[in-house]
Each structure stands twice: as C-alpha cells, then as structure tokens.
Amino acid sequence: MLIGVDASRTTVSRRTGTEAYALNLIRALLAAGQADGEDQHRRWRLYFRESPNPDLLPHSEHIEHKIIRLPMLWTHLGLAAEIARRPPELLFIPAHVRPLWSKAPAVVTVHDLGYLHFPESHPRRQRAYLDWSTKHSARHCQHLIADSQATRADLIEHYRVPLQNVTVIYPGFDPQPFVGEFQRPAGLPAEYLLYVGTIHPRKGLLQLLAAFSNVPEAPTLLLVGNPGWLSAPIYQSVQELKLEGRVRFLGYVPDSELPALYRHAHAFVFPSFYEGFGFPILEAFAAGTPVLCSDGGSLPEVAGEAALIVPAGEVGTLSNGLQRILSDRDLRAGLVERGHEQLKNFSWEKAAAETLQLFESVL
Predict the structure, then answer these.
(1) What is the pTM assigned to this prediction?
(2) By three-state DSSP, how is residue 298 classified?
(3) Cα(296)–Cα(22) distance, rounded to whole angstroms?
(4) What is the DSSP annotation of 91-125?
(5) Whole-number Å distance between alpha carbons of 233 and 26
(6) Rg (the chain; Cα; Å)
(7) Alpha-carbon distances, residue 316 vs 82, 208, 214, 219, 296 (angstroms)
(8) pLDDT per position as a tens digit, 71-88
(9) Do 275 and 296 touch, CB atoms closer than 8 A?
(10) What is the rounded distance in angstroms from the CA atom of residue 208 to the CA atom of residue 22?
(11) What's residue 114's pLDDT?
(12) What are the chain's domains?
C-alpha cells in the first residue's frame, strides 16, 4: 500500500495547533509502521513545499520525500500535478484541503468549523475559501476525520456528510515538555492568570476582560499570542476598563518558554466561543495548572471533568468562575489531579493506530 501524505505544514517555523497536529500525527504514523512491522506492505510518500530538516521525521527505506517547489496554489496545482503523474493508493491531508483534482482516494482531517458559528470573525474572502474548501473535501473525499464530536456534528449538519463518512479521531498530546520544575520567567509577577492563544474576539477575550474587571482581587492577567484579525477592540477594552496595570500582552512566546509560563500560573483561563479542539487546555493539565474554560465547541470533550467549565460569553458566570478558582484551594487541587488523568485519553500512538485502521478500511 502506497500512502501519500501532504506534509507541507510540518516545516512551518511557528506552528499553530493545526501544524503541530500534522507533524506529530505523521511522526506517529511512520513510527507505528516501523514498530509493528507493517512497513513490509506499507510505503509512504511525503509531499513537502521545502526540504525538511534531517531530524524532523523518521527515516526508512519505505519512506520517500517529494519536494514540490511552488510559491502559490501549491495544493491545487503542484500537489495535484504530482498526484496525477504518480498517484498513490491513498492520499492523506492532515491539515489542509483535498486538491481540486485527485486520482487517488483521499482522507482529510477537518479541524475547525468556527467560521460557520461566527462568520463575522473572519474576513469575507477567508470565510468564503474556508466554506468552499470544506465543502469540496466533504463532497469529494472518501472519508473525513474530525478532531471532535462537535466538529463531526457540524460536518453532518452543515455539509450533509453521511454519518458513515466521518470518524472522530482525537489528536494526541505529548505531556513531557510540560512536566517538571521550571524556573519562574524573569520579569513576571509572583502570581498571575494565564491565557494562551490568538488575540481575537472569538476567543472570548472581551468577555474575559469584562469579567476580570469585576474581580479586583485577581492577580495580573497575562495574554500570550499573536494579534489576529479584529484584535483592536481587545486592546481598546483594556484602556476603557482601566486595566492597563493589571493586564499584560506578551505577544508570541516560543514553545520552549511556554511550560514555565503554564507551570507558575495561578490558573489557566480559556473562554473561547468555539474551538475545534483545544491543545492549550492539555498543556495546562500537563503543567499541573488548574483550568477555567468555556463550553465552546469541543472544549467540554477535551476538558472532561478536569476543568471548571462556564457558559461561553457569559460575563457574570465567568466572573464567578474566576473568583472560585482564585479562592478555593481544594477546587484547584482537584482540578490538577483530574487533569493528569484526563491526559491519558490523548496519545499520538492511539491517534496513529486509529488513523491506520481507517486507511485500511477506506482501501
């Protein structure tokens, strides 16, 4: 069996959750083949935009790299042309869209349909492309993988995907980088609340700032992440609520520095309106940090009973949640303990095994 894999997202320098998913799942898929001896009848062809670092992915005589150098329309021209010339038996797209033309049966992972729930949060052209690309994959792929039951339900409801054509396979998570003792980051307050993610209204940050302003005893709120589209009102809200001395924007923080930020936070706060998955919650669990999150999208699936969950967008309940997680030591200890247990539900080995099983069934 020759499986072609779109590995173009694995070489991105600043990885978001989608790129991290692609890299880690591809690593696990290749490692699973070597571990179970299935490399004898399973071969891999990985498609890249640029040459990957030698240590990025496992090596084997059954793994082939194909570099397609094309600055624009890489998927619909470059990848499509390569597949037309040398089609694999199956094409897997872990973090993008099926090429416009493909001779090979395709499996695509759909991560996030938030643009359907909050269309105003995306530029019109981006929203139109997201809708078209998802509809295209839904109509022309042999099977879809959804990150969560919430995403699967959206695909079935909005794109009329047959029940049997979409499978939920939860992403894995490696807790090891977040485990251990870490020196407190220099220049940060002794106590702080932490948010990690894009600075964007859809993340519930306007409501978080309003709720935070209602809790004067709360420590400093640190917001980590790059500004997204429509982020200006968030920065303005800090001024309007007179929170300049209590809220700090740290911008992008490298992955290597995140564990220390999580480890020393009093609590992690994630009030997003909608998430296709929610890796930051698992990062907080691994670091031993109590979590307060919303019920937006898949977050209840990810958090289970290991987080204090409040309704998305409700400032009053979010204020109450902040007060509880700040003042109730037993609550925080219980959340940390359950967080470590919840992590056991998410492993890349499990995700790879279920994905390989799906490939076999599609073929």
Answers:
(1) 0.90
(2) coil
(3) 23
(4) EEESSS---SS-SS-EEEEE---HHHH-GGGS-HH
(5) 38
(6) 21
(7) 54, 10, 9, 18, 16
(8) 889 999 999 999 999 999
(9) yes
(10) 31
(11) 87
(12) 2-172+347-362 (3.40.50.2000), 176-345 (3.40.50.2000)
